[in-house]
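Complex 93.
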Amino acid sequence: MSEQRYRLRNPASGREVVLEAEPQEVYLDRETGQPLELVGKVLPLPPSRSRLPWAVANLRFCPWCDQLAQKDLNECPTCGRRMGPLAPPAPIR
Ligand SMILES: [Zn+2]
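Predicted structure with zinc ion bound:
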């Protein structure tokens, strides 16, 4: 079973949500009751060696293709190029 997720936006507030949605359905903002407009598909996760969840804190941009990749991968899952080491975190003083 593959639930396609979509980004939906409230045009009034600009708030975006990600939902498992059917594109032909109309979804309402839970808070304001306004209809949400479909912004785009959320791509399904490519098969990946990463064990990190697909969360902003665990992602970085590939320097080659500018797509998101999990930080624990050496090669970009999108273009397959080597992304190089991450800068080490700033030392805690
Ligand atoms: Zn890439």
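The radius of gyration is 17 Å.
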